[in-house]
Specification:
The chain is an all-alpha fold. It has one domain (3-74). Helices cover 58% and strands 0% of the residues. 18% of the residues are buried.
């Protein structure tokens, strides 16, 4: 499975919060691992998350908050 296809599972089904529950955190870790193996940059992953959220939410503040959460969660990871 392409890492971009894994993006939706990183979000809550209803609230669209990034890695808000344990199962979503697990999916996020798997997606990030697959993205790294594919040579994707952190910015490319953030763009893919944003693209997905723009399809399912029109709330710009919510989208920005989820991207901030992704960046915070991955800040200490080597990329």
């Amino acid at each position: 499975m392409n890492w971009k296809e894994m993006v939706p599972k990183c979000f809550g089904m209803v609230d669209k919060v990034y890695a808000g529950h344990e199962i979503e955190k697990q999916h996020a870790r798997k997606m990030i691992s697959a993205a790294k193996k594919a040579g994707a940059t952190k910015d490319e992953v953030a763009d893919a998350l944003c693209d997905y959220l723009e399809q399912v939410s029109k709330d710009d503040m919510h989208i920005e908050a989820q991207i901030r959460t992704f960046r915070k969660n991955t800040a200490k990871q080597s990329w």
